[in-house]
């Protein structure tokens, strides 16, 4: 009798559970389907060390935050983050938040009271690129100075050979100068000529005078731009180099983040991943730096530079 009773009880229990599931499944999702009010984003900034700022999301309602350093374009995520703002001065920081009520943002000026005294150490990406005053780079005059392929530092699709060093002398003489200052000054000097590469100027496959860069392509001429460095970012976690200003570039003019545009600069900046930083290469007295730009999918241009 006990066994029969248990079977009946279990059978009825399953019916109750099945009925409950049907009721729950038919109920509208959520008892309150209206949106909450928009979040009111707010944050605080604390200088935890010279040139080192801690940003904390103190928005009163639960939100998912993301941060942008307006001057450099550097982006971070998290309720509490730390960012290097190397030089004393004022910086605009934007906080974007997403909450139940939607998206909102706030931009505030924060003050860095003390410059980071160690920022130009050559163990940092910025110090390696710009030293403590300024540092000049050119294309490395060896095979493989620039290449393109499926992945960073890959030249399976094409790679420059030894012959390009002399055949494209008007490209290997270009100078890229980075200054260690609060403005992040980047200077580009093409020495009055360029390699047309079939798409620049008169679209020859040789050297042409800088005056042949006309229209939007004229923005690729010599000029002064800005740069910033994000330490520890990029595919190799060595850092990222952002060149700011329409026409700012290194090596391959048409290459930019997400594509190639032959008619002129596509954006106001180009972001390069740092792929290698070698001090005093083979004891030869110069430094080597590799940078790469992802032009879409797995396609990357890689450029190798030598310090002078």
List keywords for this structure.
single chain, mainly beta, disordered N terminus
Structure in words:
The chain contains four helices and 21 strands. The chain has 308 residues and is mainly β. It has helices spanning 2-26, 125-130, 162-167, 169-172, and strands at residues 43-49, 52-57, 64-69, 74-77, 80-84, 89-99, 102-112, 134-139, 146-150, 158-159, 175-179, 185-189, 193-195, 207-209, 223-230, 240-244, 255-256, 259-260, 269-278, 288-296, 299-307. The relative contact order is 0.12. Helices cover 13% and strands 40% of the residues. The N and C termini lie far apart (97 Å). An eight-stranded antiparallel beta barrel has the order 8-11-12-15-16-19-20-21. A four-stranded antiparallel β-sheet has the order 4-3-6-7, with no helix packed on it. It has a three-stranded antiparallel β-sheet with strand order 1-2-5, with no helix packed on it.
Widest β-sheet, arrangement of strands: 8-11-12-15-16-19-20-21
pLDDT averaged residue by residue = 90
Provide the structure class: mainly beta
Query: What is the overall number of helices?
Result: 4
Could you give the count of β-strands? 21
* Binned strand content: 35-45%
Distance from first to last alpha carbon? 97 Å
Radius of gyration: 28 Å
| Silhouette | globular
- H-E order: HEEEEEEEHEEEHHEEEEEEEEEEE
Largest sheet: 8 strands, antiparallel, barrel
């Amino acid at each position: 009798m006990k066994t029969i009773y248990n079977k009946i009880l279990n059978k009825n229990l399953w019916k109750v559970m099945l009925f409950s599931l049907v009721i729950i499944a038919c109920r509208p999702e959520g008892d309150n389907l209206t949106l909450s009010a928009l979040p009111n984003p707010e944050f605080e900034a604390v200088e935890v060390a010279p040139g080192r700022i801690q940003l904390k999301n103190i928005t009163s309602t639960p939100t998912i935050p993301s941060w942008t350093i307006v001057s450099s374009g550097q982006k971070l995520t998290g309720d509490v983050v730390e960012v290097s703002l190397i030089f004393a001065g004022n910086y605009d920081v934007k906080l974007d938040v997403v909450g139940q009520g939607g998206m909102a943002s706030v931009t505030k000026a924060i003050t860095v009271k003390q410059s980071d005294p160690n920022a130009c150490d050559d163990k940092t990406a910025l110090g390696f690129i710009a030293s403590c005053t300024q540092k000049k780079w050119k294309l490395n005059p060896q095979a493989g100075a620039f290449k393109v392929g499926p992945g960073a530092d890959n030249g399976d699709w094409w790679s420059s050979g030894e012959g390009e060093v002399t055949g494209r002398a008007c490209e290997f003489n270009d100078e890229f100068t980075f200054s260690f200052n609060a403005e992040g000054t980047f200077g580009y000097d093409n020495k009055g000529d360029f390699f047309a590469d079939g798409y620049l100027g008169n679209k020859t496959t040789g050297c042409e005078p800088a005056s042949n860069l006309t229209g939007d392509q004229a923005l690729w001429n010599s000029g002064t731009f800005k740069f910033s460095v994000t330490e520890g970012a990029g595919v190799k976690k060595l850092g990222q180099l952002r060149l700011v200003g329409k026409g700012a570039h290194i090596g391959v003019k048409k290459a930019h983040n997400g594509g190639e545009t032959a008619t002129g600069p596509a954006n106001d900046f180009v972001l390069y991943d740092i792929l290698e930083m070698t001090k005093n290469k083979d004891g030869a007295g110069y430094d080597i730096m590799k940078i790469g730009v992802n032009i879409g999918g797995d396609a990357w241009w890689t450029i190798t530079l030598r310090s002078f």
